[in-house]
Amino acid sequence: MIKKFIHQFASPKTFISKVDTYYNFIFYSALLIYVLSIIWGILFTPEDFVQGNSFRIIYLHVPASFLSQSLYLAMGICSITFLIWRVKLAAYLIVAIAPIGAMATFIALISGSIWGIPTWGTWWQWDARITSTLILFIMYLGLISLHSSFSNYEKADKLLSWLVIVGAINIPIIKKSVDWWSTLHQSASITLTDKPTIDPVMLYPLIGTVIGFFGLIICLVLLSSKNQILIREKNKSWVKDYV
Amino acid sequence: MINLIRLEFLKLRKKTRSWLGPIIVFLLIMIAYPLTVEFLQEKLEIGFFSVLWIAILISMMLATEDIFTEDFNDGFLELMVIQNSSFSLGVSIKVFAYWFLIGVPVSFLGFIFSYGTTGNFSLSISIFPLALISSYIFLNLFALGNSLSLNKGSVLGAIVTMPLALPVLIVLGKSLTALQLDINFLSFILLLLGSLSIIIVIIPLIVSYIIKAHLE
Amino acid sequence: MFNFAFNSFNEAIYMNGHGVFVWSVLIIVILTLYIFFISYIFKIKKIKKKLNESN
């Protein structure tokens, strides 16, 4: 039943038509939420008692950091879907997500480094979270280079899926690194299980930036997967009709 | 199965460069280490174990450089798939042969170097099982990398699987601290053994699927 | 909750010396997102054009 459901709703043709229908709505609402939350966070929240105004980088750093790990998990789910049910769209999504994940990780690293200068007094520290995030970035680059080194897409998709699944072992390590080691990096401000350690005045715009950034990243993934579909299915008759 | 084990050992023994090369590289790294920090006992002890783990990592990476390449090119892997024999078992045996001929000597040399550097026999003898287990884990991980990058050069395989070795390095670092402070060292050994027991089942299985994807 | 956190526009830019960090991160994030969006839109346009030509 699951297989039938997936195959019905995950045909590249259906996917592209859904992307075209909903893209503008997702993009403009995400952009609006993101811009408003950024303005709210940077200009309208009070100064942090300990970190001063540099704490405002949280509104740019946390969404990217959160998405860098979530995108890898999304790739893991797509890999399992592809290997078990042979859904082509899942394979396209893995390839589409990898560069976006690398971008989110890059933003998390750069923003974290810059935030480190006023708060820690150094732009780089061999801290557990920073090091594990750097490794995640290298993993994304490894995935991109693995896929691009094969001209046979079908083979490359399978190899990529296996590597994504094995590599998922690092995600809980990155997530838990700040709890397992006594490091410079602070513990997560928002978790699913505990009460947030951040004041609501600062928390609401943060939630807004996470939602807005998430929406923009979804838009990027949609664009990237559309690009993948057009490349891979270029010889199909529906693509010729579509363009 | 016995024939397969015998065949794998024979093949590896005949390829002298494949098993001797990584051992020599390990020796060279361990010999090069004192040259970079002056020959002072105190200074040598500070970074010794980090260098030891990284030397093991590098030598295992080199050991798996062409673990499947030759078999892939001469059609042996294809034959195994066609014969429908347990392919993942074949992979396990191959990795075991590499561990026995490369991982075990490297671990023993690690113990010797450790004793030579620290002069602490009980510490060095405890390093031995850590090196044995970690070298086996590294071999499995890099075998996965090699299977992914078959005929695409060993660098690609190393790049994509090196991050996977990170958790092992972390546990090795932590277990050494536990050993020096004499707390919970056994639990780290058990943790590594537990990881190894999962890895030696899962990795050969995944490698066999990957190689089948290459052969399709 | 919606009170402007600074006394003047200049103070908002300067942020007691932290402005350079906050604004540079903002510029990097916006630039990176912009480059990615533009590059994908351009790629899609390019492949559509190519497919149209081959039709």
Low-confidence regions of chain A? none
Please give the largest β-sheet of chain C. none
Broad structural category of chain A: mainly alpha
Mean pLDDT of chain C: 91
Radius of gyration of chain C, in angstroms, nearest whole number: 20 Å
Net shape of chain A: globular
Query: Count of helical segments of chain C?
Result: 2
The CATH C-level class name of chain A: Mainly Alpha
Architecture (CATH level 2) name of chain A: Up-down Bundle
What proportion of the residues of chain C form beta strands (DSSP E)? under 5%
Query: Helicity range of the residues of chain C?
Result: over 70%
Quaternary state of this entry equals heterotrimer
What's the mean pLDDT score of chain A?
A: 88
Distance between the termini of chain C: 58 Å
Number of β-strand runs of chain A: 0
Helix content of chain A: over 70%
The Cα radius of gyration of chain A reads 20 Å
Shape of chain C: rod-shaped
Report on this model:
- The complex is a heterotrimer of chains A (243), B (216) and C (55).
- With 243 residues, chain A is mainly α.
- Chain A has nine helices and no strands.
- Chain A has helices at residues 2-9, 12-43, 58-85, 88-120, 128-148, 153-167, 170-180, 200-232, 237-242.
- In chain A, helix 3 crosses helix 6, helix 5 runs antiparallel to helix 6 (153-167) and helix 5 packs antiparallel against helix 7.
- The two termini of chain A are 33 Å apart.
- By secondary structure, chain B is mainly α.
- Chain B has one domain (2-215).
- In chain B, helix 2 (16-36) runs parallel beside helix 6 (87-118), helix 6 packs antiparallel against helix 7 and helix 9 (166-181) packs antiparallel against helix 10.
- The radius of gyration of chain B is 18 Å and the shape is elongated.
- With 55 residues, chain C is an all-alpha fold.
- Chain C has a domain at 30-55.
- Helices cover 76% and strands 0% of the residues of chain C.
- Chain C is built from two helices and no strands.
- Chain C has helices at 9-14, 19-54.
- Chains in contact: A-B, A-C.
- At the A-C interface, helix 2, helix 3, helix 4 and helix 8 of A face helix 2 of C.
Describe how the helices and strands are arranged.
The complex is a heterotrimer of chains A (243), B (216) and C (55).
Chain A: H1 2-9, H2 12-43, H3 58-85, H4 88-120, H5 128-148, H6 153-167, H7 170-180, H8 200-232, H9 237-242
Helix pairs in contact in A: 2-8, 3-4, 3-6, 3-8, 4-5, 4-6, 4-8, 5-6, 5-7
Chain B: H1 2-14, H2 16-36, H3 41-63, H4 69-73, H5 76-82, H6 87-118, H7 121-148, H8 154-161, H9 166-181, H10 185-215
Helix pairs in contact in B: 1-6, 2-3, 2-6, 3-6, 3-7, 3-9, 6-7, 6-10, 7-8, 7-9, 7-10, 9-10
Chain C: H1 9-14, H2 19-54
